Amino acid sequence: MNGRVDYLVTEEEINLTRGPSGLGFNIVGGTDQQHVSNDSGIYVSRIKENGAAALDGRLQEGDKILSVNGQDLKNLLHQDAVDLFRNAGYAVSLRVQHRLQVQNGPIGHRGEGEPSGIPVALVLVPVFALTMVAAWAFMRYRQRP
């Protein structure tokens, strides 16, 4: 464990139906407006309350959108990406990359309900031994006249 923060990257297909306020999210990025250093991808900057994306619940701020209706979003200007979303139609399929933060390394403290790190066998073996001694003593005591 080295204390370094890593990311677990997953991809998901999300189908949204355009609502009265569009798809319900804003984007940043593009070849002319890099949101992430050395990455011209398109990212979700904001989920609009009660919009299609918020009601669906899977798309999150910070997600990278890889494609819209099968069309790759690589190497697009920001405005070209916006136009692609606007012209995507009523039912829109998004290929999305989620990045979940994973901590590798020592943990300063444990929260309530988290395991204490004591192996189960370390607890069960003494409990089992005490149970056996108690059962043996009980049986021996019952055998006396």
Automatic annotation (TrEMBL):
It comes from the Eukaryota. The chain crosses the membrane at residues 118-139. SUPFAM superfamilies: PDZ domain-like (SSF50156). Residues 13-100 form the PDZ domain. It holds the Pfam family PDZ. InterPro entries: PDZ, PDZ_sf, Synaptic_Scaffolding_LAP-MAGUK. GO terms for molecular function: protein kinase binding. Binds (via the PDZ domain) to isoform 2A of SYNJ2 (via the unique motif in the C-terminus). Interacts (via C-terminus) with RALBP1. Interacts (via PDZ domain) with ACVR2A (via C-terminus) and ACVR2B (via C-terminus). Forms a ternary complex with ACVR2A and RALBP1. Interacts with MAPK12. Interacts with DLL1; enhances DLL1 protein stability, and promotes notch signaling in endothelial cells. This is Synaptojanin-2-binding protein.
